[in-house]
Amino acid sequence: MIDDFLHISITCRDLETTIRFYEAIGLKTIKRLGTVDEGGIAQAFQLPAARLEVAYLATSDKPGALFIDLVQWLDPMAKGDAYPTLDNIGLNRFALRVPDLDAMVASARAQGVTFLTDAPVAIGDKGMRFIVARDPDGVFVQLVEGF
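Structure tokens predicted for VOC domain-containing protein:
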């Protein structure tokens, strides 16, 4: 039986740059682990080593809340790129619910965040609107109002 969601882990090339992006869209850094050098992680993930920088980001620091486990791999170095489009197989994006999408978009834009569209898109007849950004490494992040 599954009890609850725990975290989403995102690999980035530069931890500080990526933290700034997620803070610009409203998340908070709730914990920084610093450099982790853990053989157990290497073994579990079938990697030759596991030295990484880690930060946790979330909407709040209340216990049990879903958080982003943001990871910059130092050894081995991260490789590859995020999916170039949203129609790939696998995890293609994650969504964050926001109470005031227009204010969030304006605030994020003022901090340098760019979006795929100029304005939020409305879908359905229930008042749901959303807009999509890409983090510094290309991960798609959807901001949703009215869901």
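The first helix runs from residue 15 to 24.
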